[in-house]
From TrEMBL:
InterPro entries: Ade_MeTrfase_dom_2 (IPR023095), DNA_methylase_N6_adenine_CS (IPR002052), M_m6A_EcoRV (IPR012263), MeTrfase_D12 (IPR012327), SAM-dependent_MTases_sf (IPR029063)
Protein name (database record): site-specific DNA-methyltransferase (adenine-specific)
Molecular function via GO: S-adenosyl-L-methionine binding; sequence-specific DNA binding; site-specific DNA-methyltransferase (adenine-specific) activity
Any single GO BP term: DNA restriction-modification system
Domain of life the protein comes from: Bacteria
Family per record: Belongs to the N(4)/N(6)-methyltransferase family.
Keywords: Methyltransferase, S-adenosyl-L-methionine, Transferase
EC number of the protein: 2.1.1.72
């Protein structure tokens, strides 16, 4: 869906800011497509930001660390994964997190109530081979070099850095009202998010928000306040894999919201209210 989301970046954007950095997929896609000259990747997850720092500043060392772990696992993959996971929860080394992401289920981060990484391994695979990971790291490093700033901070602190020339992309790592999300170390409060969005509107900061969606007739995510004056678009995300497993056919749509300031800056774009192809 990156292509569809990027179609709503104004041509005069000087920087794209992702306060919930995660994989920074949209920021990377924006650089690759030359949509913006600079990006700011931020997240409150310190180990994750240390991994991004290693990709930007020491990709060769990171690749070597991953290779050492990948080779050491051979013949003892199950037990080795658990040892690396335990070590990461003590040491928070970037190469350990990279290895865990390569091996864990759906390559997704999960934390327990104590803030420890607890995602299980996908025992069907050993993770991408070292030469493949090295190439990905070096390609990402080349894309980021001289064009990216990294920040470990709460999303509200990051939003304070936004200027009228920037565009902010928010993809909060949760859905629902004030629920603990296992992908995130800290509990995010929905009311705090809405307050932050209102503040962006008052400062006339342009932003895009990925927040909710639907599969077939089932919707998820609580409604956003009408006072935010956001334009809601639907992006087609494909068939629902869960519905397919249940012998049904259903399509998933992700919602994308455009802020009032962004709508005004997109005067040359025909804003569509119908579902958009990803």
């Amino acid at each position: 869906m990156a292509k569809a989301i990027l179609s709503y970046l104004p041509k005069d954007a000087t920087r794209l800011i992702e306060p919930f950095g995660g994989s920074a997929a949209i920021s990377l896609a924006a650089l690759a497509a030359r949509k913006v000259p600079h990006i700011l990747i931020a997240d409150s997850d310190q180990p994750l930001m240390r991994l991004w720092e290693a990709i930007l500043y020491a990709p060769e060392r990171l690749a070597e660390g991953y290779q050492a772990l990948w080779e050491a696992q051979l013949g003892q993959e199950r037990a080795f994964y658990e040892r690396v996971r335990a070590a990461f929860n003590r040491e928070h080394c970037p190469e350990q997190l990279l290895y865990l992401l390569a091996r864990c289920v759906k390559a997704s981060v999960h934390y327990n109530a104590q803030g420890e990484f607890n995602q299980s391994a996908d025992h069907r695979r050993k993770g991408a081979k070292p030469h493949t990971v090295r190439k990905r790291l070096m390609d990402t490093h080349a894309l980021l070099k001289g064009r990216a700033t990294l920040l470990c901070a709460d999303y509200r602190e990051t939003l304070q850095l936004a200027t009228p020339q920037d565009v902010v992309y928010l993809d909060p790592p949760y859905a629902g009202v004030a629920q603990r999300d296992k992908r995130y170390r800290a509990c995010l409060d929905q009311a705090d998010l809405f307050e932050a969005l209102h503040a962006l509107n008052k400062r006339q900061i342009a932003y895009l928000l990925s927040y909710d969606g639907r599969t077939g007739t089932k919707t998820y995510g609580a409604p956003l306040p009408e006072s935010l004056d956001l334009l809601r678009l639907e992006l087609y995300a494909g068939r629902s894999s869960q519905a397919t497993l249940n012998g049904k056919s259903a399509f998933t749509y992700e919602a994308l919201y455009l802020s009032p300031t962004l709508q005004a800056r997109l005067s040359d774009v025909a804003l569509q209210l119908e579902p958009l192809a990803a």
